[in-house]
Amino acid sequence: MSIQREWITNSRIPWFLGRVLYGVSLGLIIACQAEPPSGVNSPGTSAESVTSSSSTEPATQTNSSSTDSQTTYKNESLGIRFEYPEGFVVDDTNKQSDAESEMRRGTVEVWTQADYEAMQTNEFEGTELPANVSLWVYRNPDRLSLQDWVESRSEYFVSPQNYTQQQVANQDAIAFQSTGLYEFETIVLPSRDGQDIIVLRLAKGSGNEAVYQQAFERIQGTLQLLR
Fold this sequence. Notes:
With about 230 residues, the chain is an alpha+beta fold. It is about 35% helix and about 30% strand.
């Protein structure tokens, strides 16, 4: 009787161990299936970071639309950008003499389309060109104040008067009137680095002041300094 009980007890031990081993194996299988495969979000990696890393593309520069290109002028060399009304032409091909080029870095002239086309057909040959809007960029190596600089250029600004303070392109500017071949309304401001002076000028006296006044005000209101 004792021998039979001992056999029964011993036969239960392998069966019990088999159940334990089966449970452990099943747990390992489930754990392996629960582990995420490589490349899927895991603890410490958010869905947002995975998405952004997979969709990153090189930055590109978008060109201006045809409408913008007709009404926006940008000159990296002179460090200026501005908008002007449609129906006008911007001409920066006017070359100054060698003596002028030592001080004047560049000239930009703004004409109505009609005046510009008439100039191309020599309609104004032998006569003065119509009054227009112009923008000059001058060097200012001595870092003169705006009013001192204006008064030192009496060949360009005859009898300047009625100075007023303004803010143009986020810079402290001065506006004034002067005379000469035409009557002039002028705004003068420094470049951001202080090395240049920008002159925006409206000529009056050829009967087309109203249309050019529009361009003058548009340029003044949208002028940006690039340096």
